[in-house]
């Protein structure tokens, strides 16, 4: 699937045998918030379309996002985002449980070129190298499997009423955060004997009561 407007461009490919989406995204510095949100909605719709029986595909999105003020060490927005695009990208990352894998500057002192994925454990390494074609460094992604010789992916039918059948991608994350913030976690921790080797088990039992 490809999409382009007056600002943004993207190409998405779904590899059925891997149940994986690979995508390339370009977001220019002066893109409007509305255009960027529309592009992210295209990606979201494609992810939802490729999901089967609550099984969301692995996702790897790579590209030049041009958002130098993001703090990727903490995955947080700047205090005063210069564009609504920052908030749109953060919402997209949170909704899809994505991790940003590039931790070194790709142009000057800024991390502009990103790798966003929902399966960070399959990323073996991320390397950067100088490019003769661009003032951006080239980003190299090494995965822990060979996409050219995939094993057949078998979809599992899950009981929609079971714990494994819950689709967390449709969860109301704002309500969950609100409810979690109402809990006095430090007060609960005081109820456990911290000197005991079983203190973590005791705490886990306490919060599931």
Could you describe the 3D structure shown?
By secondary structure, the protein is an alpha+beta fold. It has five helices and eight strands. The chain has helices at 33-49, 84-95, 173-181, 185-190, 199-207, and strands at 2-4, 9-15, 20-26, 58-64, 99-100, 113-117, 123-129, 138-143. β2 (9-15) and β3 form a beta hairpin. α1 runs parallel beside α2 (84-95).
The proportion of residues forming helix, as a percent range, comes to 25-40%
What is the subunit arrangement here?
single chain
Helix segment tally: 5
Which stretches are poorly predicted, pLDDT < 50 over at least 5 residues? none
Largest sheet: 6 strands, mixed
- State the strand order across the main sheet: 1-2-3-4-6-5
N-to-C order of helices and strands:
EEEHEHEEEEHHH
Structural class: alpha+beta
The backbone outline, from C-alpha atoms, is globular
Rg over CA atoms = 20 Å
Number of strands: 8
